[in-house]
Amino acid sequence: MKIGRFLLNNLVRHLEDFEYISRSGRGLQNQSRLLQSVSKGTIFSNRRMYSTELQPQLSSDLIKIMEKRLSAIEHRGAYLSSFINKPEASPAEYVKANKELQQLRGPMDLINELRTKQKEIEGLKSLITECSEDREMIKVANEELFQAMEEERRLQNQLLKSLLPKDDADERDCILEVRAGTGGEEASLFAMDVFKMYERYSFKKGWKFEVVEITESDLKGYKEASAAISGAGVYGKLKFESGIHRVQRVPVTEKSGRIHTSAVSVAILPQADEVDVKLRHEDLRIDTYRSGGSGGQHANTTNSAVRITHIPSGVTVSIQDERSQHMNKAKALKVLCARLYEMERSRIQSNQSKLRSEQIGSGDRSERIRTYNFPQGRVTDHRVGITHHSLSDVMQGENLDIFIDALLLRQEMDAIASFSST
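RE: above sequence
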């Protein structure tokens, strides 16, 4: 608990610095540098130490806990290495043991590096003790000792991150779903703005952004919109964007100039396929119908729209974006798999200890996570208390990383606090 409170207090100080830089208008370069420094782990040490040249110092208590885990990995690795060389091991046992050994190979290589470096440190300390009267030798030995201890810290930090719980879905692509909530047409217009914000952000990241379905309102806003986003680690980057996004501004339909509050819901779902989700044909009801809205004469005169209902869960997905029934069906199945996969993940996670703290939020779409105040030109994330005073940049897909990186950092800190208490 003491370690957890210590880490949390240091994180709060960092987040205060985030907000200070955002308010002071010192520019994106300083924000980027600060985010890079904290994301590399300097949160473990004094908050003034933002240099990436020095490695953060882990607490002695945390090192003791980590050493127990490292010893267990060393013993397990030695056992598996011995087991796979036994002639009496069956082919099935050999495959299983070898697979586990390969999974441990990365941490074991780091552990070996760490042990070698620790022996070097002990040797240098002994040398300094033995040569206490040779000033030149002590000077050289102290310089080498400093470098060796920095390398030891780097390896310890790397090993700590490798031991933290990982979400297998983080490396997956994702499905983005945006829905207008309270606020009528204004909510639909803001849903369109949010959807396009993520589209711009995806392009800046070099991700592929494929529109799956858009349902427009009377004023050409988006009642509902969904997209498939593909790229390296997309879900892990965007997963905390799920929730209620609130907007405060004067709607285009407001003649008296009053500020209205509206909201949209955002859901980020990890993409899945039929390997992750077993879809039986008898569990699906597939309906085709004529698509509505724009799309030309062909779209409105053929049964190109597809509605798929998963009978056991009651989940329904309707797609009419494409002119081909086959393509609409493929898109609908992709979205259906993602929704069912997320339902199963949520069920499993609810039965396990929570990795996400209440301060991060659950990622549930019913949780209010962010407010976009247009009159004041600011965006506030309520989970980490960060306010950024350049709303227009955020809506253009810029500076979203200020919030995203802070949330991922908070997640990492919660994982470390959980690690230290187990």
